[in-house]
Design a protein that fits this description.
alpha+beta; GMP Synthetase, Chain A, domain 3; 2 domains; 3-stranded antiparallel beta sheet; 6 strands; 18% strand; DNA binding; R3H_dom_sf; KhpB; RNA binding; R3H_KhpB
Length: 166
């Protein structure tokens, strides 16, 4: 009797994506002569990879985030392409460097809560500044958690969120 190998679960596939991404990023860190550890997780149905510093006072990894996260966005896209080259499937992997996205998520949640408060107070829709897709997703999630409605409007790179009453 022959046995079939177990079917690959979504979590196993995401863990594989994380491992491929970690290998790619470790090579990049070596080339750039930067010290960092790679943390791999699965978060909200996505592989989540973070480059963290061994020394909390070392700010050299922040260069990989760049001003306003533009270097991080590019690095994330390159990492997704490296994963796709190995797996043959498009990756939705999320990359963070030195806690940049985590801190940005906290800030954006505050922005969303402030917008919800203004909509409650005035009843009028509130338009926010243009944001990248990650930032808009964070705002949409925070607005929905507050029981309000939000939509993205405009065209990249000037796409922005509008918060409205339900």
């Amino acid at each position: 009797m022959t046995t079939q190998p177990d079917a690959e679960t979504p979590t196993t596939r995401l863990e594989e994506e994380g491992e491929i991404a970690a290998d790619y990023l470790e090579e990049l860190l070596d080339i750039a002569d930067l010290d960092g550890d790679i943390d791999i997780d699965v978060d909200h149905g996505r592989a989540a990879v973070e480059i963290v510093s061994e020394d909390p006072s070392d700010r050299s990894l922040r260069r990989l985030a760049g001003r306003d996260g533009e270097v991080l966005d590019a690095l994330q896209e390159l990492t997704r392409l490296a994963v796709q080259a190995k797996t043959g499937e498009r990756s939705r992997l999320m990359l963070d460097v030195a806690g940049y996205r985590a801190a940005r998520r906290e800030t954006l949640t505050g922005v969303a809560n402030d917008a919800v408060a203004r909509v409650k107070e005035t009843g009028a829709p509130v338009s926010l500044e243009p944001m990248n897709p990650f930032e808009r997703k964070v705002v949409h999630d925070a607005v929905a958690a507050a029981g309000f409605v939000s939509d993205s409007e405009g065209v990249e790179p000037h796409r922005y969120v509008v918060v409205r009453q339900p």
